[in-house]
Amino acid sequence: MRILFLHSSHSRYIRNLVLSRALHRSHDVVEVTSPASSRLKGNLSIGLRYLFMDRRAFDLVVIGFPGHLLVPWVRLWARSHGRLPILFDPFVSWYDTFCLDRRWFRPSSIPGRLTYALDLWSCRWSDRLLADTYAHRDFFIHTFDLPPAKIDVAYVGCDETLFAPRPEQPASAGDTRTFNVFTYTSFLRLHGVEKMLYAAKYLEERRDITFTIAGAGSRLSAMQGLARDLGLRNVRFPGWVPFDQLPARIAGADLCLGGHFSDVPKAARVISTKTFQFIAMRKPTIVGDNAATREVFVPGQHVWAVPMNRPEALAEAIGSLAGDPVLRRRLADGGYDIFKQQFTTEAIARKLEPVLEETACGSAS
What we know:
Layout: E1 2-8, H1 14-24, E2 28-34, H2 39-51, E3 60-63, H3 70-81, E4 86-88, H4 94-101, H5 110-124, E5 128-131, H6 134-144, E6 151-153, E7 179-185, H7 193-202, E8 209-215, H8 220-229, E9 235-236, H9 246-251, E10 255-259, H10 273-280, E11 285-289, H11 291-296, E12 304-307, H12 311-322, H13 325-343, H14 345-360
Helix pairs in contact: 1-14, 2-3, 4-5, 7-12, 13-14
C-alpha cells in the first residue's frame, strides 16, 4: 500500500519513530511532519501541507501523536476532496492527561469539556484506532463509548539501533563501586518519583546501594527538596541526559526502574517507554504491578513487579535483587527474550499488517 503518515517529529516522540519504521518495512510511506515545539503550530503546519497533496495517490492516512487536532481537519476536508481511510494513534487522551492525571482542569470545567470533546470526536471520526496496551484500550472504549472492534493494540517498543545489549565491563582490582539503581524521568506525578525517594530512605543504611534519577521537569526542584528533607545521601540527580547518551547510562546500571509507581490511574494502564528500553538492553527491571504489565510480562520471569504506591515494597525488591545476581541475570535474560519475541520493530510491523489492510479496505467498525 501507499501510506500517508502525518505526525510530529521523531526526535520528540519515540512512538512515532517506531510506527514509522514498522510502516516502512512493507509499504511505500510518505511522511508529513513538523519539528515545531508547539503542538498547535505543528498540527497547523502539517495540516496546511496536507491540503496541497494529491490524496488520490494514497490508500490510507495514518495520523500519529499528537494528532488529535489533525483528525477533524483531515476528515472534514475529505468530504469535498475524496475520502481517505484514517488510522489514528492517539497514544494518550488529552482529557485523561489534563483532567485526571495532571489535574490542570476539572472535568466539568469548560477546558475539561473541550479536551473530552477533542478526544471523543478525533476517535469517532477515525476509521480505526491504535492503543499502546489493552488496559489503555479499555479506557478509551469505556470513556468515549467506542466499539471494541475499532481499537487495536500496538505496544510502544523502542529504537533498537540505540538500545541493545552491551558487553559488561569486568570489575577492576579493588573496585568498590556501589550497586547502581537507575531510572530517568520528566518528574510527572504519573512516574511516582516520590515513591522512589521514600524507597531510598528505607534503604539508607545500605551503603552499597545508590540511586541515579536522571532527567528534568517542572517538579525536579520539588523532588530535590524532598530528597534534602529526607536527608538522602544515596540519591543522585544528574539532570537531563541527551537521548543518544541514555544507552551508556543504562549500560552502567545494575538495576533499572521502569515504573510507573504512582497512584495516578493512568499509571496502571500503560507500560513506560523506558521499560522497553531497559529490557532491550538486557537489564533487570522493576515495574509497577498492574493490568498493563501483566498483559505481556510474567513477574519474576521477565521483570520484577511491585505493588504500586508502595515504596516499602519497592525498597524490599531493590534490596533483595541487589543481593541476588543469579535472579538479576534471569530477569535480564527473560526480559530480553520477550522483547525480541514481541516488541521489536519487526514484531510490531507484523501486528500492524492486518490492521492496515482492514482499515484501507473499510472493514473497521
